[in-house]
Amino acid sequence: MTGQKSAWVSDGTIATHATVHVNLEPSKGMHGTGICVVPLDLPGISKGKPLNKMGQRPLNQGEIFFEEVKIPKKFMVFSDYSISQPLIKGIFTGANTGMSVLFAGLAKAAFDEALKYSRDRVQGGVPIFEHQNIKLKLMNMFTLVESARSLARRTSAFNAANPPGSLPHAVIAKGLSTEAAFKVASEAMQIFGGNGLSKEYCIEKIFRDARASMIEDGTNEALALSGAVFL
Ligand SMILES: Cc1cc2nc3c(=O)[nH]c(=O)nc-3n(C[C@H](O)[C@H](O)[C@H](O)COP(=O)(O)OP(=O)(O)OC[C@H]3O[C@@H](n4cnc5c(N)ncnc54)[C@H](O)[C@@H]3O)c2cc1C
After folding, report:
1. If pLDDT is split at 50, 70 and 90, which confidence band does 129 have?
2. Are 164 and 93 in contact (CB under 8 A)?
3. Which whole number is the average pLDDT over 64-88?
4. Given a cut of 90, is residue 165 above it in pLDDT?
5. Cβ(176)–Cβ(148) under 8 Å?
């Protein structure tokens, strides 16, 4: 096997083993692909440098290169696309469902931080929470947080009880949660004022992590287009 996985493989530079989606018969496109488990110390495998990115910085990512790597047959898990395709769809559904839960949680964290700060920070003689514009912001943020949490919970419960689950629901739940996390984090930063930009407070990190989530595991736009096929 010869080729390269993108610079974005999570845990790419530190993993000891990888599940690799490989081309077996390129002329058949996706139908000629299979899945194998590869120990990453086989001759011909090398790794790139960890990616230096804006958000989710503790998440290691990097390239894996394959140069004429011979993969023993025993490491091949699926060589028949009709078997691996439902598995890939199931992984896709599970990953998006997980993302929806994670980023509904991040949206709530940003909201909780902003609410607490608004009660502590005094400007104009009162805690800023008492100013109408801040209350309005907080209620709009609360709407987004609770909408994201509701859909994430409903999708998780349905998908856990009905494997392999609903891919369109998983995709919209991921989209709603990650966009809620980003918007709520941005509004939280506004409520923190200048402190929102300072690394002394966690809002700037939440904002950066939330921004990455709209691209992570597929851009929300590309996921929506893929999910629409299964409506
Ligand atoms: C935190 C994080 C973790 C990640 N983890 C992994 C990982 O573990 N493994 C891995 O392989 N990748 C991972 N990625 C990479 C991620 O999956 C890709 O960055 C993402 O799928 C977008 O692909 P791209 O960067 O090549 O952008 P492109 O595909 O070049 O897209 C660029 C823009 O064009 C749009 N676009 C692209 N194609 C179309 C189309 N056909 N129709 C309409 N619009 C289109 C996109 O929506 C986007 O706005 C991760 C990314 C992040 C941020």
Report:
1. very high
2. yes
3. 92
4. yes
5. yes
Q: What is the pTM of this model?
A: 0.94
pLDDT of residue 38: 95
Fold topology of 3-79? Butyryl-CoA Dehydrogenase, subunit A; domain 2 (2.40.110)
User: Which three-class secondary structure string do you get for 59-126?
Assistant: CCEEEEEECCCCCCHHHEEECCHHHHHHHHHHHHHHHHHHHHHHHHHHHHHHHHHHHHHHHHCEECCE
Class assignment of domain 86-228? mainly alpha
Q: Which atom of ligand 1 is nearest to the CA of 55?
A: 1
Start-end ranges of CATH 1.20.140.10 in the chain?
A: 86-228
In this structure, which residue's CA is closest to atom 33 in ligand 1? 219
Output the ligand 1 site: residues, CB below 6 A.
6, 8-10, 56, 59, 212, 215-219, 221-222, 225
Residues of the chain with CATH 2.40.110.10: 3-79
Atom of ligand 1 minimally distant from the CA of 56: 1
pLDDT at site 87:
87
Q: Whose CA is nearest to atom 13 of ligand 1?
A: 8
